[in-house]
Amino acid sequence: MAIADHHPRNRIAVLGSTGSIGTSCLDVIAAHSDRLELAGITAHDRWMSLAEQSHRFRPRWAVVSNADHRPSVQTPQFSQGTELQFGAEAVERLAAHADVDTVVCGIVGAAGLRGAWAAIETGKRVAIANKETLVVAGPLVMQLASKTGAEMIPVDSEHSAIYQCLQAGRRADVKRIILTASGGPFRGWSKERLESEVTVERALAHPTWQMGPKITVDSATMMNKALEIIEARWLFGLEADQISVVVHPQSIVHSMVEFVDGSVVAQLSPPDMKLPIQYALTYPDRWSGVSPRMDWTQSSHLDFLVPDLDAFPALQLGFEVARRGGASGAVLNAANEVAVDRFLHGSLKFTDIPRACREILNAHNDDPSPTLSELLRQDAWAREEMRRWTR
Length: 391
Ligand code: MG
Description:
By secondary structure, the protein is α/β, with parallel strands linked by helices. The protein folds into two domains: 2-154, NAD(P)-binding Rossmann-like Domain (Rossmann fold), CATH 3.40.50; 162-267 and 298-325, no CATH class. It has 16 helices and eleven strands. The strands form two sheets. A seven-stranded parallel sheet has the order 4-3-2-1-5-6-7, with helices on both faces. A four-stranded mixed sheet has the order 9-8-10-11, with helices on one face. Helix 5 packs parallel to helix 6 and helix 14 (328-344) runs parallel beside helix 16 (372-388). The longest helix is centred in the middle third of the chain and has 18 residues, at 131-148. The N and C termini lie far apart (52 Å). The relative contact order is 0.11. The mean pLDDT is 94.
């Protein structure tokens, strides 16, 4: 990347700038304003927060991707130097713009795929926080990236950890990777207890990470880890049986790589998303950061536990989809998105989330190498199935 050759600062577009990843990313950019420049920001609904961000950073573009807000948005509330645009196409135009060097994909869900695709198509550095891009369309996305030379740098803490650990050896010498999982708020709960005692409030109380509601519920079901298994399978070009999961309640070891000689390399840091975000922006360099540091003056211990696949069957779905490939990732992801929404609105039981996903996955029409439009069709089909799902 010749960022510094033509422009003194790395010009960054943050897709989903008002979300959890987006706001952390803006903190990183603010801390390094001599070397990083916020060129564009996008939000789907929260245009008031977007307007505030435009005053704080004065980016060249701001996009409200939900065009329905156009009549109510007050243009004067945005910074004067910022050009305001509307609609999903405007997000794609921003991601593909020649005056943008790096695109941070922080939009949650399958909705984030289009912006990521536009950035990859134009060969940019892509800081990928949207795991659905790889879960839904992993093989197509990685093929496209190798064609255009786009650099795919993960922001998900586990995948950033693996990316960092991989710097310790040759890719051909990797035996397997070990994804760590906090286990979420229901770690140690039995299948029976999960059936009867889970409430929305309890599912939203994550012990170590502060995140949006969708990913917090995914952590509680461990579907988040399932999606991360699939994400890792495509991002790192691994076979499903080269991926293991271990429960690690402290969320200090963010993941590990085991090499053929038996050496295991781990990445540790206090749980804070600013570190993996910054690493994705500065790689291969490391800059003095804004993230908290390990305190080695306090005694501490790290636990590693075997995951309970019986209580958390979502995990099994992750391994299965990583093995099957095809459209199964798109189907699982879409079914889960609707299931989580239904759970949050009280129309689906917690333990029915993986149960319904399993049934819809079993019923889908398998296609070994689907096109992007076929994947989107399967995505729509799975959503419809999940809306109708009753026990
Ligand atoms: Mg993660």
